[in-house]
Design brief:
229 residues; alpha+beta; Glutaredoxin; Glutathione S-transferase Yfyf (Class Pi), Chain A, domain 2; 2 domains; 5-stranded mixed beta sheet; 52% helix
Length: 229
């Protein structure tokens, strides 16, 4: 059986969440860890834009957006119902998901963080790195979104309800980044529910597996199989 091939970068948040979904789906892929300063020709042939993650299916179909990879993985197998739907699509489809109120809420939350919070987070990281005078303003811009998550977690165990959903694993890598910008401030910040939610993930078996370090991929090397296997 030919495994799908996942080009990945260990600490890239987009690649991280793709691996999280693959792990949760209990699917297996051939993992190819790369560095973007030395992109393999095979990766660029699959997706000329040259960003990770990139998933190449057995049919040669290429999926090169992290959320689409997450949806692909979970439409193959979703044992924890992270999509809040019982619909199963064909093995190579990421479209046609039957919409539900909860799935719509999940995708809306992810979209908001991908397109709004991520911009604020990048500004916050830059302000810290370059000792800019607007660090506080940048942090407070991020906190608008963090406060929303804290409020959600005050009401239930996870971001959507009392069970883990796609939203949790899609946002996790970016909240992890936020927590690392000003570590001491974060540890004392007034977000106890968010901190407990993040800590639960960071100390989980899943996160250890997803963040395991592998040798950089090169053509001809032995296959590295990745998944909850």
């Amino acid at each position: 059986m030919t495994l799908p091939v996942l080009y990945s970068l260990r600490n890239c948040p987009y690649a991280m969440r793709a691996r999280l979904a693959i792990f949760k789906s209990k699917q297996s892929v051939e993992l190819r860890d790369v560095v973007l300063k030395d992109k393999p020709a095979e990766m660029l042939a699959a997706s000329p834009k040259g960003t990770v993650p990139i998933l190449v299916l057995a049919s040669s179909k290429v999926i090169d957006e992290s959320l689409d990879i997450m949806l692909w993985a979970l439409t193959q197998s979703d044992p924890n119902n992270l999509l809040r739907t019982e619909v199963r699509n064909s093995p190579e489809s990421v479209s046609g998901l039957k919409s539900s109120a909860q799935l719509a809420e999940i995708l809306s939350l992810i979209n908001r963080f991908d397109h709004e919070f991520k911009t604020c987070l990048e500004a916050y990281k830059c302000a810290k790195r370059y000792h800019e005078s607007n660090l506080l303003d940048c942090r407070q811009a991020c906190e608008v979104y963090i406060q929303d998550l804290e409020q959600r977690l005050n009401g239930h165990n996870y971001l959507i309800d009392d069970k883990e959903s796609l939203a949790d694993i899609a946002l996790l890598p970016f909240i992890r980044q936020f927590a690392k910008v000003e570590r001491q401030w974060y540890l004392q910040s007034p977000y106890p529910q968010l901190k407990a939610w993040l800590n639960q993930y960071l100390h989980s078996r899943m996160f250890t597996k997803v963040m395991a370090k592998y040798p950089l991929w090169s053509s001809g090397q032995s296959i590295v199989e990745f998944g909850d296997i």
